[in-house]
Design brief:
Length: 373
């Protein structure tokens, strides 16, 4: 009798739990889309057994697993990313060739998060000019210090005649700030600069890459199911990330009520960015180096309110001093309506949409002397 009672009780609890979980999934699926929560959605496949990026490189840290693929699905896009044998989202490239080529450095905007490869900036430029654009852009909190380190340790070994550098002020200053990194844990393997301009020393939080929190791991079956088949687990991961962000003091980073970092940076942060640009130019030698800065949506709004742009003025002066052309994409949005500039970005993610990549391609190609030859 007792066994029968316990069996019935267990069965009822399983049914209640199952119904509750299904209701939670339905509610989250609706809420994520209506509230426009910027998290990954379940793919209902086992395509995403591993993560999209890890700390893999001893010099610059972040990199994708070689010859890998990852499907990222959000409410406004569904894209499969594929990496080449070196771990970059690009086709295979020979190290040496007589073909004129461009090395592209940057973060997730350069890599083309949220769009198919054929629709991202470097592919559009390559198709238009018939000059290969080697895409060394990387997501995963990747800043100018890493652009510089990547170029020095790897990208510069590929034959090329020009370097195209994408600066994203909304997080490049943050990504390169050693003190900010310490406040949010310091458990990544990535290079930082310590000291004062121009006498910097490269340091890493961890003394070995194996100590990074972002290392490859063999996921178990439960993890695979939760990540690929549930909204609940992906929401949990999102909330953990947001909790980390909230630990950063508001006097260190801007919050929603403050002017974006395109207009809010310290002299020390700018000096590091300046040093990285100068060092890339030094390493590039006689090759053409081009720098462009990328505004995000809220920075376009802020610029329309106050019209000030201190970063562009300072970057222009730096680039002029070392014979590097500089393009600020922010003023290029002046003639857009609100709907038009909003369309440049993915609503569920904040990266460039297809329209945003096309916008950048148009102005880069028409502005830089290299593309007018």
């Amino acid at each position: 009798m007792l066994k029968k009672y316990l069996f019935t009780l267990l069965k009822n609890l399983i049914i209640i739990f199952g119904i509750t979980f299904i209701l939670l999934e339905v509610i989250l699926a609706i809420y994520i889309r209506t509230a426009e929560i910027k998290i990954e959605l379940p793919t209902y496949t086992f395509q995403n057994t591993f993560g999209f990026w890890y700390d893999l490189n001893e010099d610059f840290g972040t990199l994708h697993l070689p010859n890998d693929e990852y499907r990222q699905k959000k409410y406004c896009f569904d894209v499969v990313y594929e990496s080449n044998s070196k771990g970059f989202r690009d086709v295979e490239r020979k190290e040496n060739t007589t073909t004129k080529r461009v090395v592209a450095l940057g973060d997730s905007f350069t890599e083309g998060i949220g769009v198919h490869m054929e629709d991202r900036l470097t592919n559009l430029l390559e198709k238009e000019t018939n000059n290969p654009h080697l895409n060394f852009g990387l997501a995963g909190n990747f800043g100018p210090i890493q652009y510089m380190t990547l170029y020095k340790s790897m990208a510069s070994t590929y034959s090329h005649e020009a370097v195209l550098i994408g600066i994203l002020p909304s997080n490049d200053f943050i990504d390169d700030d050693y003190e900010i990194g310490l406040k949010v844990g310091g458990n990544r393997y990535k290079p930082f600069l310590t000291g004062t301009y121009p006498n910097y020393e490269t340091v890493y939080y961890a003394d070995r890459i194996e100590k990074s929190k972002a290392r490859p791991f063999q996921p178990n079956f439960v993890y695979k199911v939760l990540k690929n088949f549930t909204h609940s687990y992906n929401m949990y991961r999102y909330l953990k990330v947001m909790q980390h962000i909230k630990t950063i003091p508001n006097d260190t980073l801007f919050d929603a009520s403050r002017i974006p970092s395109y207009f809010n940076f310290t002299p020390q942060q700018f000096n590091q960015m300046q040093y990285c640009i100068e060092e890339i130019k030094r390493l590039a030698g006689d090759r053409t180096v081009m720098v462009y800065s990328i505004p995000i949506e809220k920075e376009i709004k802020a610029y329309r309110e106050h019209g000030k742009n201190p970063l562009a003025k300072q970057l222009q002066a730096v680039c002029d001093s070392i014979n590097v052309e500089y393009l600020d994409l922010l003023p290029k949005t002046n003639d857009f309506t609100e709907a038009e500039y909003e369309a440049l970005f993915l609503s569920c993610d904040g990266h460039w949409s297809e329209a945003g990549n096309a916008f950048a391609k148009k102005h880069i190609e028409s502005y830089f002397s290299y593309y007018k030859k």
